[in-house]
Design a protein that fits this description.
- The chain is an alpha+beta fold.
- It has one domain.
- Helix content is 28%, strand content 34%.
- It has three helices and five strands; from the N terminus they run βαββαβαβ.
- The strands form two sheets. It has a three-stranded antiparallel sheet. Strands 1-5 form a two-stranded parallel sheet.
- β2 and β3 form a beta hairpin.
């Protein structure tokens, strides 16, 4: 599991999204540098280094630091 820092707008998008997956890249400080909310994992899987099922991320909010 990755402890990740996100901003408030990103946290809101995660909470209200109807998508199934979040794909994202992180920098050396565990900040999300870019992300994609999608239902099509196969299409974007190789463009991002990490991916999670969005329902799991919503349940594990203690791993997110909102800045």
């Amino acid at each position: 599991m990755i402890h990740t820092k996100i901003n408030l707008l990103t946290a809101l998008k995660l909470h209200t999204s109807n998508k199934d997956f979040i794909l994202f890249n992180v920098d050396a400080n565990n900040n999300i540098t870019n992300y994609k909310l999608t239902n099509d994992l196969q299409r974007y899987r190789y463009k991002y280094t990490n991916f999670r099922l969005l329902e799991v991320v919503k349940q594990q909010t203690e791993l997110l630091t909102i800045m």
